[in-house]
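Example for reference:
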Amino acid sequence: MTEENKIQLFRSGVLSRVRKLSATVVNSSSPNPDGDVDLNYLLKVLREHYRTVLTSGISVMLLALLASLFMTPVYRSQATIEIKEATPDIESLDQLQNRSAAPNNVVVTEVETEIGILKSDTLARQVINQVLLAKSGDEGSSGIFSSIWHGFVRWYVGPDSDASSGQGASSSLQAASAAADAASVGASVASEMDPKAYQRMVDRFEASLKVSRVGSSRLVTITYEGSDPRIVSRVVNAVVANYLQLHENATEKFTRMLSKQVLEAKNELEQSEQKMTHYAKQNGLLYLETNTGTTQNIVSERLRQLQDQLTQAQSDRYQKESVYNLVQKGDYSSLPGVFDDKLLQTLTEKVADLKTQYAQLSATFTDSYPKVKEVKNQLKAAEQTLARERQRAAASITNDYLAAVRREALLARAFQGQRNEAVSVADRSTQYNILKRNADSDTALYENILQKVKEASLVARIKSNNVNVVDRAMPQFLPVKPRIIFNLALGLTLGLGLGVGIAFLRTHFDTTLKTVEEVDRFLGLPALAMIPAVDSLAQLVVEGNHNNGHGLLLPDVLDTSQMSKAETPWYRIDKQVQQKYSPLVEAFRTLGSSVMLEAAGRKRVLRSIVVTSSQPGEGKTTVSVNLAIALAQQGSRVILVDADLRRPAVHRALGFRNVRGLSGYLEGLCEWAPCVLPGLSPGLDTLSAGHAAKNPVALLSSTRMRILVSEMLEEYDYLIIDSPALMPNLMDARILAGMVDGALMVVRSGMAPRDYVIRARKQLNNIVGVVLNSMDVRSMEDYYGYDSYGYGNAGKETEEDSERTPYEKRIAG
């Protein structure tokens, strides 16, 4: 055996490491048993079905692209206005000057009110008549490609001449005149339309018109969407213009109404004043104008003055009489609180303050304390001074009281005389007062109306500046819908989501066995080897042949001189491909070592092995041939028997004619030794199936077959039998399994349903393990971890090699 083809012997811990590797693959291939989401499982599913996911994502994205390209482009134009602080319809000049800033809730109400006006049906109908119904027929919508191109040209060349700075007042007048003409034409068209159709047009217009406030500011944006960029901008500007005109019209109408009322109130006021003046002259009534602007009778005014003086004198006498009574009683202690004497008030406050200080000090110190003595002496002196002042004030109070009594008597006599005269004048003033009230009412009405007319003019000027146009709408030639990039991203996202859903559905409904964990769970058997699929490693090119569904032979082990050119051999791996795809080669070598270790672990003889599968096409012949080669590479004498008398395949794998073989021996036509083809590989002999048999079950269950097994085990170290598949209900493998030490069951990953494999497994009782064939190593992240066990370094002496026994080194080559 050459140095390149040596295989390292599995020590006692290698099989456990292989199983640990399998468990790692299992953990990345199955959902968490606790029901939690396993990220490794999700990634595995995506790797297995990435083509489905990508195809779904790209397909839906292309559909979104086609739908976007065929959609009618939608253009958007926007204007921004500023709604300044609102002014009531009629407000006084003082209120206008002194009015403070409105609170936030008032601002919200004002702005929302104006937004409601902008969204009103009245304004919508005006704009529809002025723009939409009067538009010319040459302003139709354009396709999305031409729209994008036109937008690019417009950006490169610059804005149209109608947006240049050369527009002046004459241009504005012409635009206003054109708008009026368009409104007239639109109104004529609207009158001829069906009312329901016109209402639907209004509803569509209001749905396309968006009016919104910018944050908490007073800015309001007016946005409109449509299929024609020029019409869209004209609509927005028309909404702003009609909104401004609506405010101006309301103010002008109110001003005209007030002007008419002023003339009527003026005439009524003149008539009322003439009647009042004529009556006063006839009755000799004289009236004076007061500071408040009103007129008053002289007699009545004099009577009112005397009455006020008499009332004041009586009040003064009452007050002084109460103090006088206290003096007469000698109750001087109450005097300071009755009349106003600054000195007495000061002394009283001082006594109270000293008493407070004395009380505070007494609570802490005794009377012998110096500070207490000082305050006590001051209090005594202040009380003596207060008593003297009270006596002086008592004499003054008596004199004041007597003077007040005399003054009250004089005023009472004067009031009575003036009262008699006022009664006489009152009889003559009754009718005059009636006429005066009418004149005053007419005057107030006239002045109120006149003031409101003046204020209305001021309000009109204020309201004309109440709305400021910040940005006018300009034609936008790049459509806002469809949003191709967004639609593509959305389509790709939905497509990928759909693909992921399909991938998980396929995984959920896939009942085939694909992983080591599934083999252990459903079959209860150990997985002795995991054979990767060739196409999952790469496109192998070996000796000019491709993998046409055949099996694999280990490198440089066959004597090609004995091969028949009439048969097409399965391909072999040369040295270069072996080095590149060592996991595939090592998988079969692992199988041979695993068989040896399985026998050692169970402490049983395992020299004769039947290789079978649940159904044809799972690779049992491939496994049989390569297992025999792998065992022969380890220094054992191995014979490979093709016992599939129905569909023999070993001769095709090894490339010789199927002339003499097992069927001839079982029928007694020859002995088995001359039928054996020796030396195809060092240590490997082969017995083909021979010619087709009419009754394979009878031949395989014969005594000659048992004798053959016994005699071969005397000559060889290992007997490998390639048997037919177990299903559907074939007895061949069951008969052969009863004659050997154990059976290997080949399961092709992702091929047979697990229920089918389970039924096949129940037909044999001595299965030693399972070979999981054609595994997709792209879904096994740790598969190439085999190199970490030293497979890629075969032939190199290591510290572990130095510890081997002579027997182990002999087997290792």
